Amino acid sequence: METSCFLLIPLIAGWLLDKALGDPLWLPHPIVGFGRLIAWGERSLNRGKHRVTKGAFLAVGLILSAYGAAWSIVHGALCLNASAGIAIASVLVFYCLAGTTLVREVREVFRACDRSIEEGRRQVARIVGRDTSALSAQEVRAAALETLAENLSDGVIAPLFWYLLLGVPGMVAYKMVNTLDSMIGYRNERYGLFGRVAARIDDAANFLPARLTAALMVLVCGKLSLFSFVKKYGRQHLSPNAGYPEAALAGILDCRFGGAHDYFGKRVEKPYIGENPRELTTDDMRRSVAIARRAEIVTVAVMAAVYSSLLMMA
User: Fold this and answer.
1) SS3 277
2) Is the pTM of this model over 0.85?
3) Distance separating alpha carbons of residues 90 and 9, to the nearest angstrom
């Protein structure tokens, strides 16, 4: 009973905090600390021989450290005072969710693009890794919606999935996994060897959440026929996971994602996801945001129902 209570309250409280605050600039964020640790480790170890081994050492060490630190903080606080432990767990859940910030950033891309293509390019550069300097208005909007789909998985559904499996420590460890991949998980000259294990861990950690995200998007839009579309196009991506939520959104909007993009000065040819190369509009953004929000609400509601049922059975 106590375990279910300690999981239910932080889930709801942390999620509501994310809805209310997002990621305010005035509030220090532990993910920034994760990034600094990764950058320090990369500068120190990504040189000479055995780069795969050294990168694996950094990745596994930081993931286990994140899990251990979160476990120690939460359980230490719970041992001293139950209310303090629940409060700390709630704040950590809040830090691990990015739904509100994701929606805010995607909206700002569309607003900026409506003002000028230059503003749109600058705004979308905040949320994508590709070179945005030569993107068309259509490519800017597509990039924002691709990011919305992919990060609905990475920033919302996957953290909740790992919370369900391993509680707050699992959620925090997942954020370290995701941050590692976003910083060193690239297939280029600098990170290709050093970040290989980090990228593989991220692929494994997101395998089920990415497919669950796609299924949720299809279910909340009410078009079950899109499951075959997702199955067909979900594999059409360089990532083993990102294609599934992107395919779900492309099917819902009847549009096309993918194509060639520049990353760190290198041209990368991505297969197309979807069939209709139509122009994307602000209405598409609003519809996409609504789908993402519904998927998030359903996930939290199901998890809350599970914990509540366990409480009543105890």
Assistant:
1) coil
2) yes
3) 7
Mention every residue, 6+ apart, whose C-beta is less than 8 A from residue 266: 188
Is it the case that residue 267 has pLDDT exceeding 80? no
The rounded distance, in Å, linking the Cα atoms of 87 and 203 is 31
Where helices occur in 116-225 by DSSP H, the ranges are: 117-124, 137-152, 158-184, 196-221
Cα(116)–Cα(126) distance, integer angstroms: 16
Q: What is the pLDDT of residue 314?
A: 64
Please, are residues 260 and 267 in contact by the beta-carbon 8 Å criterion? yes
**Distance (Å, whole) CA 272 – CA 235:** 11
H/E segment holding residue 259: strand 256-263
Strand (E) or helix (H) holding 12: helix 2-21
Angle between helices 99-115 and 137-152 (to 10 degrees): 180
Residue pLDDT, tens place only, 5-25: 889 999 999 999 999 999 887
Query: How is residue 222 written in tokens?
Result: 């009410």
Residue 163 has pLDDT above 90, yes or no: yes
Residue type, 248: A
Lookup result for tokens 């005035």: 26
pLDDT digits (tens, 9 = 90+) for 40-94: 999 999 999 999 999 999 999 999 999 999 999 999 999 999 999 999 999 999 9
3-state helix, strand, coil in the chain (%, to 5): 75, 5, 20
